[in-house]
Amino acid sequence: MSRQPSPLDFPESPLSRAFEQPLFLGLFLPVQSGGWSPSALPRSTTWTFDYNRQLTLRAEALGFDLVFALAEWLGKGGYGGDIRYHDESLDAFITQAALASVTERILLISTLHVLYGPWHPLHLAKFGATLDHISKGRWGLNLVTGHRHREHRRFGQAPIEHDQRYRQADEFIRVVQELWHSPDNLDFSGDHYKLEEAYVSVKPSFGRPVLVNATGSPAGIDFAARHSDIVFTTSPGSAEIENALQKLPEHLQRIKHAAHGYGRQVRTLINPLVICRDSDAEAWEVHAAITAAGDPGALEGHAREASDAHAWRGHQPAERYVGGNIQLVGSPETVVRDIIRLKEAGIDGLQLSFFDFAPDLEQFGERVLPLLRQAGLRR
């Protein structure tokens, strides 16, 4: 199959416009109960669509470039614990479709496990082209192969070996892209998928929808280098900023070098959880309060889900009480200083999360964004 055009081949595409920013900004929507922090400390954060719509509209008004939603398949009670962490959740694919009708500029990224259940490339090609039409080129796919054996079994499937998942997903997304591009019926017979006289209309507005992959393994990095516009990465060290900054440059260079090997360029995105207050001391007091109210039962439930993903292997369990791939804690000036350091380490974008989303997002817009503009990281 030949190379297909991407949104970056079109200067007027929403993705091209987002990448004009020196540092693009995203919001990691809390479409699941407990957000990103298994802590019982009181807060406003909730999983409901109305709350996530409010956050998305506010992020768009503040000039954010994208919003991103998680997908998980858990049993009753979610991860458990006293707070029943992630017991309630919205589907990311449908949530972003609904948000497309109430937004105008912001990119909308859905997470989808393409190897679970009866998904076929023709399904996704048609659904994705429809969402691309509704959103005017703003919808994107975070393609996930599925890293938890229990999730595979919830669909009545045997777990698929880690690298084999990426080989199957490679065939899947190559077929999807061919369907988005082909002006004629498509016949295809591969190792995993077969199509006869398959065709999709409407065609995507800018070559294809935005493609994202969240990965850290060699097989995942190779997959992302071949297909993705954005690689969502974690810190290969811990969530603590100094540790992350030591290990990120080599990790990010590995990702970008892999893309260059295929004649492509990718942007890297990381998820900081931001705790910003008037002073560093106040921010760390909030961090301590979140941790003190952490729910150990929820962490134990998370461990029972037994992922084979590589991305979180350097993280300490207690860091999960606060959440985030990394944690930015301090005054507005301290937070901006650390964001500048992340940019210097090779990060192209931030997908932000917060403990108390609505007020913390508002404070970020009022106190941190102006400083990012002064630093030349936002226009």
Name of the CATH architecture: Alpha-Beta Barrel
Q: What is the global morphology?
A: globular
The portion of residues assigned to helices is: 40-55%
Structural class: alpha/beta
CATH-level-4 superfamily name: Luciferase-like domain
Q: If you had to describe this structure to a student in words, what would you say it looks like?
A:
40% of the residues lie in helices and 15% in strands. It has an 8-stranded parallel β-barrel with strand order 1-2-3-4-7-8-9-12, surrounded by 5 helices. The chain has 379 residues and is an alpha/beta fold. The protein has a single domain (7-374), classed as TIM Barrel, CATH 3.20.20.30.
Task: List the defining traits of the structure above.
40% helix; TIM Barrel; 12 strands; two-stranded antiparallel sheet; 12 helices; 8-stranded parallel barrel; 379 residues; alpha/beta
Q: How does the SSE layout of this entry go?
A:
Blueprint: H1 14-18, E1 24-28, H2 49-61, E2 66-69, H3 92-100, E3 107-113, H4 121-135, E4 139-144, H5 149-154, H6 162-181, E5 186-189, E6 194-198, E7 210-214, H7 218-227, E8 230-233, H8 241-261, E9 267-270, E10 272-276, H9 280-292, H10 296-304, E11 326-330, H11 332-345, E12 349-352, H12 357-374
Parallel strand pairs: 1-2, 1-12, 2-3, 3-4, 4-7, 7-8, 8-9, 9-12, 10-11
Antiparallel strand pairs: 5-6
Helix pairs in contact: 2-12, 4-6, 6-7, 7-8, 8-11, 11-12
